[in-house]
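Hey there, shall we discuss this one?
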Amino acid sequence: MRTVVFTIVSIAALVAVGAPRLGAQAPKAERPPAQGAPAPTPGQTPPGQAAPQPPPPPPYSYNAEGRRDPFISLLGRGSDPRTAGTRPAGVPGILINEVSLKGIVMDSRGAYAVIQGPDGKTHVIRPGDKLLDGSVKSIVADAVVFSQDVNDPLSLVKQKEIRKTLRQSEETRG
């Protein structure tokens, strides 16, 4: 009787500790697939490995579809010649608003104008010459007409005319 009680107690102790049941098979160790074995399909993960992480979503990009990006400032967009780094030397580096008309010369080859830049230097210009923000459209007897590029993204007008006249002296006013 002692042996029967001892057997029952020992079985109960094994069950409480978590020993494998009698007749149950022990779990098999993971083996790499054999050379001829089929590989796991793309949707499945092999046993014993963690599932792969999905790729991160692509970064957000604004699709303009003909509209301007509302998150980009209209000030200092880089195309404004005044905010550009260095200016070219001479007449191509002068803004139309910085020009002071000093004189106009008419000869058989056409009209020339003498202007003064912001640095105090004088330059000779002819119709068609380019300035930083426009060009010389025409030169008449008492004025120079410039065609200035408009740099306002909200404006429908892309160019405007600016007329710079010679100053009249007090003798010719009277």
In short: The mean pLDDT is 77.
